[in-house]
Amino acid sequence: MSSLKLLKGWLLDVYPSNLGEMTVWIIAENGERVKLVDKFQPKIYVSGRISDLSKLTTQLAVSKSLAKWRYVRKYADFMENKKTKVLEVTITDCRRISHFVRKLLKSSGCKKLRFHNVDIPYAQAYFYDRDVFPLASVGVTIQGDRLAYWLLESVESVNYALPPLRLMAMQIEIAKKKAIPNFNDPIGVITLRSNRESIVIDDAKEDEKILRTVEAIREKDPDIIFTRGGDSFLFPYLAHRALLNEILNGLILGRERIPLKAEKKCGTTFFSYGRAYFKAPMRRLRGRIHIDEKNTFIYSACGLDGLIEVSRTCRFPLHRASRASIGTIMSSLQLYQATKDDILIPWKKQEPETFKSAWELLVADRGGFIFEPRLGIHDGVAEVDFSSMYPTLMAKQNISAETVLCKCCPDSKLRVPELGYNVCEKREGIVPRTLKMILRKRAAYKRLRNEAEDAKKRQIYNHRQNALKWILVTCFGYLGYKNARFGKVDAHIAVCAFAREALLEAVRIAEERGFEIVHGIVDSLWLKKENTLPKEHVDLCRVVSKKIGVQLNVEGRYRWIVFLPSRTYVDVPVLNRYYGVFDSGEIKVRGIEAVRRDTPPFIREAQMDMIRVLAKAQDSKGFLNRIPESLEILRGYLENLKDINVDFQDLIISKRLSMNPDNYVHDVFQAIAARQLMKEGIEISGGQTVRYLITDAGNRRPSKRVKAAELINDENLFDVEKYMDMLILAGASIISQFKYTEEAIKNQLVYGEKQMVLSTIPTIT
């Protein structure tokens, strides 16, 4: 590789190419997209008895995967505060690591050894080793067969400049022959949108459409291509059509001369916090970033600005960050920190939870503190929230897997409340070190957002701080996750203990100042005090923040707020089920149908319209006087249902499958709809979301009860009575505390009408 003068630009993409090499794409300052190649041979580590390591070196001599080895001193056990002698093995190519380790494990002499830094994804390992991150502003030169980087900005920067990224959205309309498109249907229209320009490709043979698409992408040369369903269907479909037209080798959408593969990969179903999720396989475009808007969380929640922020901060590739869970992204920052601190990353976690007696478990495993809400409506309630309470406590109290119950500080003065666990005083944990940067950056973004006069800048700062918020929200749960590299249940328990102490201290201070606790949950309190002034709330927050060391803020003061009961047990309050209106007029709702993902839009809007009428009231008395008016709103929605004056799309229900459709014992609606799709040749797995219309809820034949949204046509019926019942239930759920039960509302608005009404869906023009 020849020498290169200093190239300044932004790091866009990294991936393995030839043996022992990584391809790097730079967006240069002059706008050129530059491809560079860097020699990269990753290192793994082996720890154990020196005699066993010595025997291992004799086997390494004959391995083709080995570049070199040597002994070094590292923290082999991150729970111990001392370095030990380990074997550092340099591998010829990052893709040979798993094969190399598996081969070693087959030999009997390696069973007592522990392997480290084995399964770090390739691009992340490269970022850690070169100390760079995605879209970092860098200077690059070529020194022999390696690249030398100079960072021109810090990863902690909040005012960084990004290159003018070229964005393109790709859409394919399929000339489907049935209700659901499949790989045998020909391409209809291909539309490419970039910089307010649209390229429509529709007046040609199918092979010409594909090749013209390839040429248009090559000419526009986008950095990021957006699709909807590119991972799960669009790209595999396009590749299949290219294969049938014998032009698969010409289907090149990335910057490398590598055709899109026609393979049909299966997605994966996984469980998190008791829920099933589905992730479609990733379709990679080398040299470009492909973002599937139907297979991404962070992009959907925080936009491109938020996606770039977490990718930079956590040193996680952009294309993977768009698809990965927040926990996976956040753990990358911990892996980087460990690498910089000479802490080896365990391949297979072996740190067990500390043994506890039944009594110790009862005391320790209690979670956050709560005060049950007082049912009904309340006037003048103020809501105060701790800002990033759990991550702040983790950073402030040095809570990490290796610091709680550490062996080096048994007499530590820093103790966990109630439990008495010692916390290390000699070293700062990996988790607190990573959290402090995120807390600082998020606080800076919130300040910049509040100070910004330009609306576009406010939005950018808000997206960035919101993305970091998700990292902070996840860090606590990940601390107790059994597979987290630097997690431990004892540390998770310790955070809960500190949080309980903090909330109780806040309550004590509030009550001393004459406030009544109406509700409290983990890091939020709802306080009531007659004739209170806004200054009193601010003063309370200032005193509590200083005492506890965690910022307490006033979320707002409600004109009125209603705390709702359980549907099943009408006298039992639910912690997170309420609605109210702030003095500013802003409405806040939690736990009701309007914020549930499985509520049809028609019913969601009906409930919110009822609340908007109630929100005009200044107090509880006015609220009660406006209930009849809200019922008239509900009556109007019921009349629209009976008169079929509703778009069937607004009645579609979305449900996530908790398991594969064939594993359902009962014929629940989502399972029936999923089976209908499977009969049409669509692959459905647990964790995917199924959309359906209720057609005849009481029909003896399960297949007649619902219809999958993709299969609906003008001849389908929808069950008016079932939707009316759902609508009345949604209305009753917000005013049942005031004697307006489901039965009472039905008698008043429907006059006891029982006959099922079915109607055909009107044609949508």
Description of the molecule:
The chain has 4 domains: 43-119, 2-Layer Sandwich (Alpha-Beta Plaits), CATH 3.30.70; 167-324, Nucleotidyltransferase, domain 5 (2-Layer Sandwich), CATH 3.30.420.10; 363-429 and 474-591, B family DNA polymerase, palm domain (Palm domain of DNA polymerase, Alpha-Beta Complex); 629-760, B family DNA polymerase, thumb domain (Topoisomerase I, Chain A, domain 4), CATH 1.10.132.60. 35% of the residues lie in helices and 22% in strands. It has 19 helices and 29 strands. The strands form 7 sheets. Strands 17, 18, 19, 20, 21, 22, 23 and 24 form an 8-stranded antiparallel β-sheet that branches. It is globular, with a radius of gyration of 30 Å. Mean pLDDT is 90; it is low at 753-765.
Condensed summary:
The protein is of the alpha+beta class. 35% of the residues lie in helices and 22% in strands. Strands 17, 18, 19, 20, 21, 22, 23 and 24 form an eight-stranded antiparallel β-sheet that branches. Strands 3-2-1-8-9 form a five-stranded antiparallel β-sheet.
